[in-house]
User: What shape does this take?
Amino acid sequence: MSKKRGKIIILVSPSGGGKSTMKKRLLEDFEQIHFSVSATTREPREGESDGTDYYFLSRDEFREKVRKGEFLEWEEFYNGTMYGTLRSVVENDLNKGYFILLDIDVLGAKNVKQMYGSDALAIFLSPPSIDVLKERLAARGTEDPYSLRTRLKRAEKEMAYSDQFDTKIINDDLEEAYSKVRETVSTFINS
Ligand SMILES: Nc1ncnc2c1ncn2[C@@H]1O[C@H](COP(=O)(O)OP(=O)(O)OP(=O)(O)O)[C@@H](O)[C@H]1O
Ligand SMILES: Nc1nc2c(ncn2[C@@H]2O[C@H](COP(=O)(O)O)[C@@H](O)[C@H]2O)c(=O)[nH]1
Assistant: This one.
C-alpha cells in the first residue's frame, strides 16, 4: 500500500522572530517532521554547514536553478541576497509521507500557502515588539550594522501581514510560545 502524502508546516516571521529556535525544538520533538533546507547566496555564519542549514550557492549557481525552474519559490532580499525553497526537497519528502518544515519569510510563506492550501499550516511568530526584535537580533551577533538595519526595516513592513496566516503566536516567553507552537503542530499532524 502506498504511504499517505505528507503536509507542509511553515514557520514565518521577520528576521529574528524565532523561527530557527522553534524549528530546532520541533525537529527534536517530532520525528515525522523533516526540515526543508533552502538555498541561499549569503555567506555561511559561524557554525552553519552546507546541506544542513542551507545549500550555499554562488549567484550564478542560484540563477541557473531559477532558470531551470528548480525553486518552488524564491526571493531576492535587501543587499541582493537570494533565498529559495527547492521543489525537489519538498516534493520528495511529501511523497515519502513526511511533514516538511519551512523556515521562510512572509512573501515566501504567502506563496507556498497559496500553492498548497489546507495541506500547509502557516504559523506567524510575532516578536512582542520591534524594540525586542532589535535587541534579540543584535544579541544574536550575526548581523553587521547594515544587515541589522535592513532586516529591521523589512520587519516593520512584514508585521503588517501577521494576521494573514493560519495562526499567530507571540514569541515573548520562549517556553510559553514553544508550547503553543507544539500544540498547533501536533493538532495539524493528527488531523
Ligand atoms: N522567546 C525568546 N526569548 C528570548 N530570546 C529569544 C526568544 N526566541 C528567540 N530568541 C533569540 O532571538 C534570536 C533570534 O531568534 P532566531 O535566530 O530563532 O530567529 P529567526 O526567525 O530564525 O531569524 P532569521 O530569520 O534571521 O534566521 C536568537 O538569538 C534566539 O536565541
Ligand atoms: N522566501 C524565502 N525566504 C527564506 C528562505 N530561506 C530562508 N528564508 C528567510 O530569509 C530570511 C533571512 O534568513 P537568514 O538565515 O539569512 O537569517 C529569514 O526570514 C528566513 O526565514 C527561502 O527558501 N525562501
Q: What stands out?
A: The chain has one domain: 8-189. Residues 174-189 form the longest helix (16 residues).
